[in-house]
């Protein structure tokens, strides 16, 4: 075979193999680059300093989940504080929503993995084609239930890929028909790997994002039991 033809075929093969993988599977889209996080953090800090402590966030009421309550409003940051938006952001076609945590004391830029949000949205659409009211299965925690997935013709229990590991995390539902992701596997792994000794009664979800920019969105509070294992937190704890 002519050498030039062989090289051409090889290049085409490489190109096609790359096209076979969904965009979300490409390495450059897995984690928002650290420099983008630092860029946005600097912009937020400067905006806050120039505006008497006000933050560049979108207003949301108290009904929103803790981790999605304070999305950053990039319209307030550009062009004075940001010449361009981070490529990993939803606004630029990326997979992350930039949000702020600890807004009262130390506003810190964090991320919501929107692939998780999309998975929950798709599940809701699929289930609601069968019924307007989602069927509650076995109770697994305070106001938290399994999904009666067989009733909807699903062959397997619905899960979502963890933003922290390769684990498939189960999806539950509360009495308000809101989907919640069970991060017990990730919490247990973090406790074990880091040999953490935690306080019973305290919400331990922070251990997931202390060393990660990604927040455990759509979760419920967790604490530990007497064996230092993660469990759902009750109102009394």
Task: Draw up the topology in text.
Blueprint (H helix, E strand, L loop, with lengths): L2 H17 L14 H17 L45 E6 L6 E6 H15 L7 E6 L2 E4 L11 E3 L6 E7 L4 E3 L2 H10 L12 H4 L12 E3 L5 E3 L5
Antiparallel strand pairs: 1-2, 3-4, 4-6, 5-6, 6-7, 8-9
Structural features, described:
With 237 residues, this protein is α+β, with helices and mostly antiparallel strands. It folds into two domains: 32-112, no CATH class; 115-232, no CATH class. The chain contains five helices and nine strands. Strands 3, 4, 5, 6 and 7 form a five-stranded antiparallel beta sheet that branches. Strands 1-2 form a two-stranded antiparallel ribbon. A hairpin with a 5-residue loop joins β8 and β9. The longest helix is centred in the first third of the chain and has 17 residues, at 3-19. It is globular and about 55 Å long. The N and C termini lie far apart (73 Å).
Observed structural traits:
27% helix; 237 residues; single chain; alpha+beta; 5-stranded antiparallel sheet; two-stranded antiparallel sheet; 17% strand
- Mean pLDDT rating: 86
Q: So what's the overall shape?
A: globular
Strand elements, count: 9
What class would the helix/strand composition place it in? alpha+beta
Percent helix range: 25-40%
Q: Major sheet, described briefly?
A: 5 strands, antiparallel
> Could you say how many structural domains there are in total?
2
């Amino acid at each position: 075979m002519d050498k030039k033809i062989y090289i051409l075929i090889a290049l085409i093969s490489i190109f096609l193999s790359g096209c076979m993988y969904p965009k979300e599977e490409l390495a450059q889209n897995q984690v928002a680059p650290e420099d983008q996080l630092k860029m946005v953090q600097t912009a937020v800090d400067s905006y806050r300093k120039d505006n008497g402590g006000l933050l560049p966030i979108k207003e949301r009421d108290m009904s929103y989940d803790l981790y999605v309550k304070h999305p950053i409003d990039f319209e307030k940051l550009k062009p004075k504080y940001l010449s361009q938006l981070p490529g990993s952001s939803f606004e630029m076609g990326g997979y992350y929503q930039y949000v702020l945590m600890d807004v009262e004391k130390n506003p810190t830029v964090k991320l919501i993995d929107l692939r998780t949000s999309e998975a929950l949205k798709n599940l809701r659409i699929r289930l609601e084609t069968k019924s307007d009211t989602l069927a509650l299965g076995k109770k697994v925690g305070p106001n938290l239930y399994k999904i009666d997935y067989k009733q909807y013709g699903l062959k397997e229990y619905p899960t979502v890929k963890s933003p922290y590991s390769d684990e498939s995390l189960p999806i539950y539902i509360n009495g308000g028909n809101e989907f919640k992701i069970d991060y017990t596997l990730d919490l247990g792994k973090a406790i074990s790997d880091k040999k953490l000794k935690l306080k019973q009664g305290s919400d331990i979800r922070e251990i997931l994002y202390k060393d990660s920019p990604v927040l455990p969105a759509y979760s419920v509070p967790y604490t530990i039991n007497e064996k230092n294992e993660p469990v759902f937190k009750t109102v009394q704890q």
